TrEMBL record:
The chain crosses the membrane at residues 12-29, 35-59. The keyword Transmembrane applies. Keywords: Membrane, Transmembrane, Transmembrane helix. It comes from the Bacteria. Residues 1-67 form the Inner membrane protein YgaP-like transmembrane domain. This is DUF2892 domain-containing protein. The keyword Membrane applies.
């Protein structure tokens, strides 16, 4: 599994996780839609932690650059 997410994509996915979990736990969005938001937020967080997106891999997209590590 090669990295294909750059730092900006990773930060955006972490923000998405924070927003979606806040919406769910503040009971702003409840029921099935709330659970779906929580699941999607978890997937966004997981992909940002490992710097890999399966969707990017399918479409051949990569925002990762070697200099992102420095």
């Amino acid at each position: 599994m090669t990295k294909n997410l750059g730092n900006i994509d990773r930060i955006i996915r972490i923000i998405i996780f924070i927003v979606m979990t806040t919406l769910h736990f503040s009971k702003t969005v409840t029921g099935t839609i709330g659970l779906i938001l929580l699941l999607l937020g978890g997937i966004a967080l997981l992909s940002s932690l490992v710097s890999f997106s399966p969707v990017y891999e399918i479409f051949g997209i990569s925002t990762y650059k070697e200099k992102d590590l420095k």
